[in-house]
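Subject: Hydrogenase structure
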Amino acid sequence: MSNQIAILLAVLLFPGGVFALAFGLAMKGVDRRVAARLQSRVGPPLLQPFFDIIKLGFKRTMVPAAANETVFLYTPLVGVVAMLVAAALVPITSVYAPDAAIGNLLVLLYLLMIPGIVLMIAGSASGSPYGAIGFSREMALMIAYEGPLVLIAAAVAIRTGMGMGGWATFSLNDIVAYQQAHGSFLFDPVMWPAVAAFCFFYPANVGIVPFDIPEAETEVLEGPLLEYSGPVLALFKIMSALKKVVVLGLGIALFFPAAPAGIVGGFLVWLVKMAVMMLVGITAVRLSMGRMRIDQAFVFFLKWPLLLAVASLAVVVVV
């Protein structure tokens, strides 16, 4: 019973739930403020993402006449629940180790697919032609970037498993513990192609420029989200904030989990790493690049990230 309570607290409070949502919204606020200052603008308040969620909570939800009402209203809730569970699967060195009962790296990969599927179903259920276009774009983009992610995870799992005298381990706790003992994969030349592939993956997975193609405002007017409003739209924003924490936290766990002993030191180091990954991999990328076309993004992922991920897997197996 105590184990089940601990899992529930991890999903609802920390590191998922309340903490992950607050931290994800805070990162979005910092991202927008830093971006504004770099563009010589004042920018919104740091707490603007929180204000947006509260404001949407008091708005009316409009359901289009052509929409499938049940799917339209409840699909985003599935995405939020999936990300709450996913956040509880990501370890924080010296602070939190996920319970094996709720899953491992393979389960986390499945959960990370759900927000994209939710967007596709939402766009289809809305009855909007822009939602249908967003559906097709999201599907093409997922096909392109999910393949490299699976190969990256396999390379990390095999590298860890072989280092521990076995073949492959998908336990994130084992992956973190191995790097704590033998050094982070970020500094392992064998894993550099996988690191580079992941650096391409996570901007696409969190849906920022140049990979915000399914929701491109100037082309498809927010695509799958065009017809959403009120609390249901707030759920999509909550899902996005949670997903950002999960994806960045996963990158740290896979490649650079090193942290000092002790909860305070470990947590502070994790926060610094998350901030650096956000500013370098999200803020800087979206400010320095223009949006790709869907065909360009598809070819890009099937060319460079996939090639890097395959190379890393091959080197790990051979070495």
